[in-house]
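Sequence only, no structure available. Ideas?
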Amino acid sequence: MTADRPPLAEGVPDRLYGRRRGHPLRPRQQRLLDVTLPRLRLTAEQARDPRAAFGMGDAPLWLEVGFGGGEHAFDQVAAHPEVAYIASEVFENGLCSLLTRLAAEGEEATGALPPNLRLWPTDARHLLGALPKASLDRLFLLFPDPWPKARHAKRRFVHPSLLPLVARALKPGGIWRIASDDPTYQAWTEEVMRDAADFEPVGRVVQRPTDWPGTRYEAKALREGRTPIYWTFRRR
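Reply:
I predicted one. C-alpha cells follow.
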C-alpha cells in the first residue's frame, strides 16, 4: 500500500468524486495544469512530513477538502501567511480556477506563488491517511457534493466510515468546519456527527461567520433561496 493510498474501510468506494473534468480545457488552463500545478503540488512523500515541505517550522497546518472554485482557499492563504495551507481538489476545472488567480498569464512557469500554499490534486482521503497523526490544526469541508440519492450516501465525505480517518489527522483541539446548503446533506451531517465520539459541536449557525470567506457555491445557494448551515466541530 503506497503512502498516497492508505487502506480504507470495507465497503467504502474507491473514490468519493465523479468526473475529473467538465468543459474542455483552454490552452491557458492546460498550461496551468502542466506548468504551475507541479510547482505547488504536495507529493505523497512530502505528505509524511508536510511542515518540512513548506519550510515554515511549526506553523499551523490547515487542509481544505474539495476547494471547488478556490475562492475560500485563495482568501485564507492571503489572510493567514503564517499558516501552512493544503488545498485539495480533484476536478481539473476547479484547479484551473484557483491557479488562474495565482499565476498571471505568461508567468505560469516563473511567477511568484504563495509560499504557504500546497495543492493535492487527488482524493483527499489518501492525504489524510498519509499525513502524520494529529498533524492538522484545522480542516475545511465547504459545500461538498451532497450525493443526494440514497444509494450514493456512501460517497459522502461526512460518513461514519471516514470519521476515524479525519480524527486521526486532526490534533486534539483541532477544528473541523463544514458548510452545506443541501437539505439532505444537512440532515445527514446532523445525524452522523451526533454520534461522532471523537468530535464535539461548538457552533451551528445559518449566517456565515465573518472569518469564513465566501464561495461561489454559497452565492449560488443564496440566489436560489437555499439556506446554508455552517458547523464547527472540535476534535476531542
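The CA atoms of residues 36 and 108 lie 5 Å apart.
Hope that gets you unstuck.
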